[in-house]
Design brief:
The chain is mainly α. Helix content is 75%, strand content 1%. It is globular and about 60 Å long.
């Protein structure tokens, strides 16, 4: 399995600069929010989203050279993503994310909500200052999509009639929209052709949906230690994902347990076992593979480069998280 660190070799120095800039940008005006931001940007995950922006930028820019606007776009992307996580953790009353205490756990819900709001506002300010209307529209839609995804998820909790189409739409809003919109925005700032910009949008969309399906699979197959949150937590909260939707086709008794919101003793444990005993996990894996393959196909329009190779290898990495 290719390590995520080696995947980002072409932009590793750019990512290190980005992490420092993010802490400086957010912490300068508000020390408490700055402390929360530093906690976020140093303890956060692997930086896949800004890395996609930087790789797409280097793959499309003249001579592979990043402009200050490309760098700022990557910072905006990470701000938006982080703001959404802070708010998600408040909504989910989560104490841990990837094994690290959440902002709401360390600072309380009030500061966490304010920190998320501040990050969204800060990202919008820097976005406007890019002075590119198309990029503003792309990333503004992402922020709207985050809210749409969260609303849809909350309105469909414990709903066994959730369609697969609705599940994929929700996956787009919550995860893929940012990858798609920011990848296209990188191409726009590079002043590429519409064909390349469209292909990078579809790359981000397909990669993001594959990423979300894998996340949904890991909720059933990984330990609490690996996930950094309790295994099976999505199902326990009534968030029905691909493995559950597939499993319900084979285990009709699962539907009844979901409808009563696992109110009987042992309901949740039994539901997890029904999912494990079905073909839901394997079918979800195959679905993730299909979307990852679609993502890779979109990169054929790019000229050969190290950055293009990394974008291709990212599609394998997303699936390899299951191993």
């Amino acid at each position: 399995m290719v390590s995520v660190a080696s995947l980002f070799d072409p932009v590793e120095a750019d990512l290190q600069e980005l992490r420092q800039n993010l802490t400086n940008l957010v912490g300068a005006q508000h020390p408490v929010l700055g402390a929360a931001a530093e906690h976020l940007f140093t303890a956060r995950g692997k930086g896949i989203r800004p890395a996609i922006v930087l790789l797409a930028s280097r793959a499309t820019a003249v001579g592979g050279h990043l402009t200050p606007r490309h760098r700022r776009l990557a910072e905006i992307t990470e701000m938006i993503h982080t703001a959404s996580l802070v708010h998600d953790d408040v909504i989910d009353a989560a104490d841990l994310r990837r094994g690290v205490a959440t902002v709401n756990s360390d600072y309380g819900n009030r500061i966490a909500v304010l920190a998320g709001d501040f990050l969204f506002a800060q990202s919008s300010w820097y976005l406007a200052n890019l002075d590119n209307l198309e990029v503003v529209k792309l990333l503004s839609k992402v922020i709207k999509d985050f809210a749409e995804g969260e609303i849809r998820q909350n309105l469909t909790q414990f709903d066994p009639d959730l369609s697969f189409e609705a599940y994929l739409d929700k996956s787009f809003y919550k995860t893929a929209s940012l990858m798609a919109g920011s990848a296209r925005a990188a191409a726009v700032l590079s002043e590429t052709s519409a064909t390349i910009a469209d292909s990078l949008y579809e790359y981000g969309r397909s990669l993001g949906i594959a990423f979300q399906i894998v996340d949904d699979l890991l909720d059933f197959t990984s330990s609490t230690e690996t996930l950094g949150k309790p295994a099976g937590s999505d199902l326990s909260q009534g968030n029905l994902t691909a493995p559950v939707l597939f499993a319900m086709e084979e285990k009709p008794q699962l539907r009844a347990a979901i409808e009563r919101e696992f109110s009987k003793p042992g309901d949740l444990e039994q539901a997890l076992q029904w999912v494990a005993d079905s073909s839901g996990l394997e079918r979800s894996h195959q679905l993730a593979k299909q979307f990852a393959s679609r993502a890779e196909q979109q990169l054929q329009v790019l000229s050969s480069s190290e950055s293009k190779d990394s974008l291709i290898n990212l599609t394998d990495y997303v699936l390899a998280r299951l191993k």
